[in-house]
Write a structure and sequence with these properties.
alpha+beta, Aminopeptidase, 5-stranded mixed beta sheet, 5 helices, about 30% helix, about 25% strand, globular, binds acetyl coenzyme *A, EC 2.3.1.4, Acyl_CoA_acyltransferase, Glucosamine 6-phosphate N-acetyltransferase, GNAT_dom
Length: about 160
Amino acid sequence: MTKMVEVRVPNGFSIRRIQKQDYEGVIKTLSILTTVGAVTEKQFGSIVEYWDTQKLPKGDVYKYNPYVIVEDSTGKVAATGNVIIEQKLIHECGLVGHIEDIAVGSEFQGKKLGALLINKLTEVGLESGCYKIILDCDPKNVAFYEKCGFHTAGVEMQIKANL
Ligand SMILES: CC(=O)SCCNC(=O)CCNC(=O)[C@H](O)C(C)(C)COP(=O)(O)OP(=O)(O)OC[C@H]1O[C@@H](n2cnc3c(N)ncnc32)[C@H](O)[C@@H]1OP(=O)(O)O
């Protein structure tokens, strides 16, 4: 049974899919999470277009679900994240949602926007038909995700390319 935490959009903020116009705000916000590198506005626009055209074989389901929370008065991107829906063979061609690249701008942290974003991405995944939603995170963020209704299951393992 999924225990999602109800979080309302606070007054003065909106949540929606990423658009090409979000270039600067998304890049700035993501750089809180990790190195973004030299991504041009053109590259960003092409990737947003790609995300908006990828649908799963069954039904009208987006594979990529990139979202932003925007401060209405300034148009600033306050938070960003994505839920990517994987088409599997197991579980009768089931779907799994992967929450990725979550970042809340430093000036917007502590206002429940992170929880709102996770709640929205989880809802998008479940409404798309996913039988589970998963994510990897740093141990220091476990308590945050627990407050969003997630629980620890398994261990992340990786091999990194020598780039
Ligand atoms: C799958 C991934 O992408 S993992 C990567 C996550 N991103 C990052 O680490 C980037 C830098 N950090 C951030 O962007 C933000 O600090 C986030 C996403 C971790 C949290 O976002 P915020 O908007 O600041 O958190 P929010 O205000 O929604 O907090 C909700 C609750 O979690 C708690 N919380 C938030 N962060 C943490 C934390 N690191 N540890 C413990 N509790 C936390 C809050 O105190 C709050 O608790 P309450 O409901 O009892 O008051």
